[in-house]
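Recap from last week: sequence in, structure out.
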Amino acid sequence: MRCKCIIVDDEPPAVKILENYIRAVSQLEVVRTCKNAFEAMDVLSSQKVDLMFLDIHMPKLIGTDFVRTLSHRPKSIFTTAYKDFAIEAFDLDAIDYLLKPISFERFLKAVNKFSHITSANLEVAQENSTSGFVYFRSDRKMVKVFLDEIQYAESFKDYVVIHRDHEPELRIKQTLNHVENMLPRNLFFRIHRSFIVSAKKITAFTKKDVEIGKIELPIGKSYTAEFRKLVPDDLHLPGGVEER
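Predicted structure tokens:
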């Protein structure tokens, strides 16, 4: 299902940049662009909107005040040239706060945050659906990775390798902590300082290790207690996985 977005901004060049960025992400769709808050109100009252890209300084009503008027708020990413409203924006439960000029990489980081939050909600509503995705930067490009393709993530000195089902390993210049924050925590377990695993891909486990097919990964001592909380004795993981 595509995410329906609106852009609320009175600067045509800024609107054009966001339209191009959104067009590059297959699961996002711009349903309207609005020059001010009152045009946006009309759109929100007539159709469902999932995500709003919202400028702060606009004629008639500024972006933060506009959000306060809404009884049913779509998720919002503020896009502005001013730093001063960041705290106020996050107090209004903004997904992110992007400073103009907005780079495509920074835009994707905000979209990943949105994807993380909404896929967590969908997982509850749709019995742990794993149809979401994230973007990782690799070899100077942004690579789309579907959550249900990820087997595990492995940390090395200054990079992480994402192991996938039917695609080559993806090497990214990131920390494992950063990757962990990008992935839904009810679908991926941190089992070691060097490993994050997909709950769906676990085929067997003991108190000391986890198996994904023929691959055996250790459970670090400091992660054992947390792993046991996530996988209690009576829990059957996806696919009927049980403790060995």
